[in-house]
Amino acid sequence: MQDNKNAKFIKGSLNKHVVTMTLTSSLGILAIFVVDLIDIFFISMLGSENLAAAAGYASTLLFFTNSMNIGLSIAAGTLVARSLGENRKQIAREYATTVTLVAILIGLVVPIVLLWDIHFFLGLIGAQGRVAELAAGYLYILLPGMVFMGLAVTGMAILRSYGDAKRAMYGTLIGAVVNALLDPIFIFVLDMELKGAATASLVARFSFAFYALYNLFKIYQAYAKPCLQRFKRDLKETLSIGVPAILTNTATPVGGAIITRELAHFGSEAVAGMAIIGRLMPVAFSVIFALSGAIGPIIAQNFGAKLQKRIKETYLKSLLFAFLYILIASALLFLLRSPITSLFKASGLAKDLIFLFCGPLALTQMFNGTIYVSNASFNNLGHPLYSTWINWGRNTLGTLPFVLIGAKYWGAEGVLIGQAAGGFLFAVIAFFLASMVVNNPNKKQFARAIRWTAFLKHQRDHIIY
């Protein structure tokens, strides 16, 4: 095999690669979740329910814009890492350029569309009156920063594609630290209230993007000179991965809405308990949430290098790592369940739900872990639509009927039990689909990759750089 200095994941310990990539990615994700909590904490200190509600509505709308950026980051990571595995750095640079240009275009167009009639879109999710006005003021500041977030998120994905997990982590941490430091200054010192929180987040996004681009240009020379012909050539492949990834990410709030609606039938205590669980879960299981994006470059590089055995081993070692982490995290949650309920002053049904989650249900995160690892395999081995179907199935057919049955027989606790049962079903489906994909990557997927590489080479011969 020709020496390939750019693809660090095609050799060395897979255990080390999986652990390093996942832990560094999870630290970045954890920092973002913590900053989100700090944001809500500072806003709540203002003592206005309207401000807190406005932030909630704005965050709901921003979730969908962030889903677009996350989808593009998956496309960037897959295409760049795969090209590096094939020892084609120039192709990797061209893909990085195309995905980044797409992120810029979307980051400019989508905010214009949304801000053209922001009250209409806020009304679609239930915001009205003074709350809608406050949410609109927040979004007028933050939505134009979507282009910075797109550059930052795709930039971090490209850094991970080169195996630079540390710098990818540092970028996320820098953004989180800037946000946390500026929040109290803009909110309280400058007396900007909710607009101050938005301004702090905007500056944080700019710093995040600047750090990513600086490292990609200086260290990796990761971008090629823009060319309209190459952009058109690479756009189809970018969207074939990015669009399913965007759809995959937008499935999650649908499942969350179903759970919240069913728990609402049991009163405010049940909803409060679920809100606390919703804050606990990303903190306790940030490592699991990071798995899909973290191991994607490992799978993609080995796919590009046609190392079938390492692809299969990466999948299995990632599952093992996820299960071991979940066992440890679940044990800690069980031991800390009483202090947690005391910290959040939970009582009655809210306390019962927290105890259920911190007990046996925490172990059911193994189902989510299986789905996340399988999705990484689908996205990086030529089957991104599998991820879309699994996620939408998990959050619709794998949620609604199960929680209805659970609620009927076991009340509010049955809602969470039903959700877990549906997760088991789709984890099994995901595992069997992924097993077929990772065990036979040299059939349809490798043939497609070879044809695509030949096409790229042919096209490049006709382009003057």
The main sheet comes to:
none
Count the strands? 0
Note the run of SSEs as H and E.
Answer: HHHHHHHHHHHHHHHHHHH
* First-last Cα distance: 28 Å
Taken as a percent bin, the fraction of beta residues is under 5%
Tally of helical segments = 19
Helix content: over 70%
The computed structural class is mainly alpha
Number of domains: 2
Average of the residue pLDDT scores = 82
From the spread of the alpha carbons, the general shape counts as globular
CA-atom Rg in angstroms = 22 Å
| Uncertain parts | 443-465
Structure description:
This protein is mostly helical and 465 residues long. It has two domains: 1-243, no CATH class; 251-465, no CATH class. Helix content is 83%, strand content 0%. It has 19 helices and no strands. The chain has helices spanning 14-45, 49-85, 89-116, 118-124, 129-142, 146-161, 165-189, 193-218, 228-250, 252-264, 268-284, 286-304, 308-335, 337-343, 348-357, 365-380, 384-395, 400-439, 444-460. Helix 17 (384-395) packs antiparallel against helix 18 (400-439).
Key phrases:
disordered C terminus, single chain, 465 residues, 2 domains, mainly alpha
Q: Summarize this, please?
A:
This protein has 19 helices and no strands. By secondary structure, the protein is mostly helical. It folds into 2 domains: 1-243, no CATH class; 251-465, no CATH class.
